[in-house]
Amino acid sequence: MKILAVATDNFEFYYDIAKELKQRDIPFVSLSPQDKIPDNVGVVLTSVYEKPMVEHDNVIGVDKDIRMGIRIALNALSGKSSYQRIVVGIDPGFRPGVALIGDGKLLETAYAESPEAVRYLIERYIDGYDFDQMIVRIGHGDKTNRNRTLNSLKGLALKIEIVNEEYTTEYGEAPDLEAARKIALSKGELAYGPHQVEATEGEKKEMQRRSRIKSDGEITISKELARKVVEGKLKLVDAIKKQKEGDG
Q1: Which of 101, 168, 238, 243 is least surrounded by Cβ atoms within 10 Å, i.e. has the fewest?
Q2: DSSP string, 43-87
């Protein structure tokens, strides 16, 4: 079985790419660009600057987008250049869990930095994979963050479904990612917009609690600022700054 190699003398580049590979539980061997490549290596990942130094038939030079480079490398390693159907599963939340399934196989998982950032991940999946069909499935829970995510996907020519999350709750080290995987594998109902985003009292109180944690107990943002954060109109750090400056 062929494996990946990471050939670089750039510590920062190695740290970022090794972290991503370890998170996905992908085995790899670490080398310097000048090293002889072992026979069991199928694809070599290196920086674009070090690529000319690596002697191998299949070398991927990676620039800033580490995940894109890994996608290209894994596709080359598996010999799978195209998928009939790719499904994106989303466990909605303040930092949504996202899982990508290609023809029934888990390809990758990630946390989006916000509900709106899910769109960026999906756009990178569209660029990074060749497929006949892509479906997006999102859990029905956490209505506010679910609707923020759905609104952010407006304009993408994709089939989007809402899935009943009743049997997708998970526990462990990465429950949101496992829930996202289960959501991707569960058939849902077509999502029809528009999707209203309106913070509940509980969500506003929770965001006020987070503001205290974020500011080391110094600041509790107002309910109005909390509402704007929950609804995606303001970042929490900016809300804390406004409250501190008396602009809450």
Answers
A1: 238
A2: EEEEETTTGGG---SSEEEE-S-HHHHHHHHHHHHHT---EEEEE
